[in-house]
Write a structure and sequence with these properties.
The chain is of the alpha/beta class. The protein folds into 4 domains: about 110 residues, 3-Layer(aba) Sandwich (Rossmann fold); about 160 residues, P-loop containing nucleotide triphosphate hydrolases (Rossmann fold); about 80 residues, Helicase, Ruva Protein, domain 3 (Orthogonal Bundle); about 50 residues, Orthogonal Bundle (Arc Repressor Mutant, subunit A). It has 19 helices and 18 strands. Strand 4 and strand 5 form a beta hairpin. It comes from Aquiflexum gelatinilyticum. Keywords: ATP-binding, DNA-binding, Nucleotide-binding, Phosphoprotein, Transcription, Transcription regulation. One of its GO terms (molecular function) is sequence-specific DNA binding.
């Protein structure tokens, strides 16, 4: 019998979920805090973790971070309110198998649990092949989509470094793979790395490798991701999260096409094409001194700017049809379309989670649909109640955050006396991202 660890501090809600899972032949243990959950993980080793986002001693993201670091073979499902969609998308980036929103649909929960128990999710902190999990994507018909396809066709056959800009969920890794598949390196490895998941202590070892005994814990020789990608393409996602010292080593690897493993006394020749991606403004970061300007120009030989879904309204119906087809295959359903009211709602919504969010909403609706047409009663309540904000205000706020980020983090850290857990909650970021930001800004 498969063992599930459920972390939920609402006793009534926890009991409802537990009873449902036990009726479906799962063994369930409950915890109401991160500390209690970590003890149960070590003593009982569950096959799956289901955690609420808001917990008494932290957040579900903190639990996810600890679990993926210490027990990467255990999948994690995050429960969140629909209004926390950005947090849910962040959880997917951090390695969560899936997220489900409250109020929970029993059918959706059961399907998600069964899928998660088939095997561990691919982690982007390790190399992935071209079939790895990522946001599904189809060629759009909007002007922005057509322009992007032209850029891909132009740059793919070259060896130029490419910098892909775009919000979370816009399909940056898909574009990187497509460039690789249409290049002369298509028969060589494609290695994807989530730079945001690399700790400052181990980033050098992960990227460039190490020699046995070169530092405490180096029990064997390790081949780094650059060497694994030799002859092919390496994709550096969220490259702006790399620490300054690693930026120096990365620049050297690009310029000299050589790497030196930690502890090695000689260099290794490499031949890799670099594609980098970020949802941060690297250019302003290089001007502010937070990201090396010379490295920025090395990575930015060619730029592809992926537009968010809200700027590609003409493509929404096309993507929706694609995701319905995929969901039918996966869930054994026979849904054919959405009705006019749902299409209107989709067109008016701002899609902060972009394609990932659309895919999850469509899949949920397909699962719940009893007929062939998706109607608005199958959509999450928060989506129905959504009131579109002024995009100008949203982007003004984003620009202000970029300008004031260092001061804001510094102020919060001082207010909580450098308690990283409290600071990460107040700032709305996971602790690993906070550590990277602190290192970048010298806030220690």
């Amino acid at each position: 019998m498969q063992k599930i660890l459920l972390i939920e501090d609402d006793i009534t809600y926890s009991r409802i979920i537990r009873n449902f899972l036990e009726k479906n032949n799962f063994q369930v243990q409950s915890a109401n805090s991160i500390s209690q959950a970590m003890q149960l993980i070590q003593s009982n080793w569950p096959n799956l973790i289901i955690t609420d986002y808001r917990l008494p001693d932290g957040t579900g993201l903190e639990l996810l971070e600890q679990s993926t670091k210490n027990n990467p073979e255990i999948n994690v499902i995050l429960i969140t309110n629909y209004s926390d969609i950005r947090i849910a998308v962040k959880a997917m980036k951090m390695g969560a198998f899936e997220y489900i929103t409250k109020p929970i649909s029993p059918d959706e929960l059961l399907v998600t649990v069964n899928e998660s128990l088939k095997g561990p999710v691919n982690s982007k902190s390790t190399p992935t092949n071209l079939e790895s999990k990522g946001p599904d994507y189809v060629k759009g018909k909007s002007h922005n989509a057509t322009k992007m396809e032209e850029f891909i066709s132009l740059v793919a056959p070259t060896d130029l470094s490419v910098l892909i800009l775009g919000e979370t969920g816009t399909g940056k890794e898909y574009i990187a793979k497509k460039i690789h598949q249409n290049s002369n390196r298509r028969d060589k490895p494609f290695v994807a790395i989530d730079c945001g998941a690399l700790s400052s202590e181990l980033a050098g070892s992960e990227l460039f490798g190490h020699i046995k005994g070169s530092f405490t814990g180096a029990l064997d020789n390790k081949t780094g991701h650059f060497e694994q990608a030799n002859g092919g393409t390496i994709f550096l996602d969220e490259v702006g999260n790399l620490g300054y010292e690693i930026q120096i080593k990365l620049l050297r690897a690009i310029e000299e096409r050589k790497i030196r493993k930690i502890g090695a006394n000689k260099e290794t020749d490499i031949d890799v094409r670099i594609i980098a991606a970020t949802n941060d403004e690297l250019k302003s970061g290089s001007q502010d001194g937070n990201f090396r300007e010379d490295l920025y120009h090395r990575l930015n030989e060619f730029t592809i700017d992926l537009q968010p879904l809200r700027n590609r309204k003409e493509d929404i119906k096309l993507f929706t049809t694609h995701f319905i087809h995929q969901s039918n295959l996966k869930l054994a359903r026979n849904v054919s379309d959405i009705d006019a009211e749902v299409e209107r709602i989709f067109m008016e919504y701002s899609w902060p989670g972009n394609l990932r969010e659309l895919k999850n909403i469509v899949r949920r609706a397909v699962l719940l649909c009893k007929n062939k047409i998706i109607t608005k009663d199958l959509l999450p309540q928060d989506l129905l109640e959504y009131k579109q904000e002024s995009e100008t205000n949203v982007f003004d706020y984003k620009n202000n955050l970029v300008i004031q980020e260092k001061e804001m983090i510094d102020k919060v850290l001082k207010e909580v006396r450098f308690n990283k857990s409290k600071a990460s909650q107040l700032l709305g970021m996971d602790r690993k991202t906070l550590y990277n930001k602190m290192e970048k800004y010298g806030l220690k």
